[in-house]
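Section 3.1: Structural characterization of target chains.
Under the original work plan, the team committed to producing a structural model for every single-chain target entering the pipeline before any wet-lab resources were allocated. The record below documents one such target. The sequence was received from the expression subgroup and is listed exactly as submitted; it comprises 408 residues.
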Amino acid sequence: MGALTGLKVLDLSRVLAGPWCSQILADMGADVIKIERPKTGDDTRMWGPPWMLDEQDAVTDQAGYFQCANRNKSSVAIDMSSAEGQALLHDMVKDADVVIENFKVGALAKYGLDYETLQNIQPKLIYCSITGYGQTGPRAKQPGYDFVIQGLSGLMSITGEADHLAGGGPQKVGVAVVDLQTGLYAATAILAALWSRDRTGQGQHIDLALFDVQLAALANQGMNYLLTGNAPKRLGNAHPNIVPYQTFDAKDKAFIIACGNDKQFKDLCHAIGRSDLLELPDYSSNQQRVAHRDRLIAVLAQHFLTQDAEYWVSRIDQAQVPVGMINNIAEALAEPQVQARDMVVNIPHPQNKDFKMVASPIKFSKTPIVYPQAPPALGQHTFAVLQHYRDQQQLQSLLAAGVLGSNE
């Protein structure tokens, strides 16, 4: 029994933000039915390479991008543009708790799959819409992709090296961070709406915008601007409010120090053999260190070039000051902590029994996350799910007419 066992979710979304949300719910035990287009399915099914290898190391048609966000779901292929497909979905909504969609504003109304239509069929429905800019406002009709939102929201203006340095200029984050954050916000909002429904008996519409999410996720940087009227600038790997809190080059490679308070700075200085820095009033508090950032960082940078990164990381770690190496993804997933926390899981796939994924980070004491289903093939569960709504003859007729797709 998962924490959300018994919750039924119709997932009409594709790409990343919506599927990320529904995968979170599925990991916690919700019955997530992923509705896909026959023949083509979710856009990300074709976003390869890389592709999964089968047990003979032959390349399959299973894209890694699709797989990262679609485990523990059933795939049902329905042509929602057809009257028969719409009728099927209307029947499925009658016993659904949640619908998740990320179509353009107003696009589902022509299929009778908009909130107004579906809430008349199922008044207790929680309907979550994910769009680039939300259901209202001058940009509401515009398509929104993570990369564009990273730029428009100001995130790229604070990511990357400063313009005057080599390689300077705005940078996007290395994963689709806006999509992922929106998926997290969506899952949180859905659970809150379900809690509200338990008390009021009423469903509701959740309107989530990628742009809104990234504005909210500017966090201290957004607040820094509101307090000062000055737009924050790029500082590379440095922190606008804390010093020293950045990367440093050692003799062999770079490493990270994240010194979060005055005690940690004192412990750092002792650990690296620079207790003399504590005698200077310019470095006596974080406020002073921020004001004299350039001078202090120059001193530390020169000092760290005298030894290898592992030497400094070991000494600083012993002093209980946050410090670490800069891993690539292979090195990160090889960390002993990954094995200790079961953060890579084996989920046997029909084409590869040794298929692995990065696990959910949620650790429940009573209702642990389980992984019963590898990311599904397109239409893998069409008949298994729809047999509750149509008989076999009707399903075969719909399959022949192209309304359904099946891989069963």
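Residues 177-200 form the longest helix (24 residues).
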